[in-house]
Amino acid sequence: MILTGPEITAAAHDGRLTITPFEPAQVNPNSYNVRLGPTLVTYTSPVIDPHQPNPTQTVEIGPGGYVLQPGELYLGHTLERVGSDTFVPLLFGRSSVGRLGLFVEITAPIGDIGFHGQWTLMLSPIRPLRVYAGMKIGQIMFFVATGTVAPYRGKYQAATGPRPSCYWQDVARTSAVAS
Length: 179
Known about the structure:
This protein has 179 residues and is of the alpha+beta class. It has one domain (5-178): Deoxyuridine triphosphatase (dUTPase) (Deoxyuridine 5'-Triphosphate Nucleotidohydrolase, Chain A, Distorted Sandwich), CATH 2.70.40.10. Helix content is 15%, strand content 36%. It has 3 helices and 11 strands. The strands form 4 sheets. It has a 4-stranded antiparallel β-sheet with strand order 1-6-9-8. The chain has a 3-stranded antiparallel β-sheet with strand order 2-11-7. The protein has a two-stranded antiparallel sheet with strand order 3-4. The protein starts with a helix and ends with a helix.
């Protein structure tokens, strides 16, 4: 079951989910609009290697916005801290942003029960596109979980700002176990 807008509001007020800051005007019939935070991260190496940490560059989005370029992956983040120990969150791009040619969160929309923090957003434009800090970029939905809940305790917990991939940590752990 998916939470309706009124139930999202009730759950945010009674603590079953966290949305900080919470703005009633961002509640939709069955989702909550999240805004783009002020920081972007890009990878600087010509080849990204999942078996090691990759160098990055941080960009702050100024008042005039920032132009995203095609062929580049940008890691952004939600302005809001979002999470729940009760519901399964899913985050998707807003259709109005998709109609501008921006792919948002197309490969990893599902969040874990127990994660609380700013969500890292994978942003890929089809053509040059100016984005602004604070613009409504995505919408998050919440689903009721069935069964025993084992809360998330992973490497991205309590994230603030965009977080580059830590996949290499999984590779290191797997290699250590295999040795």
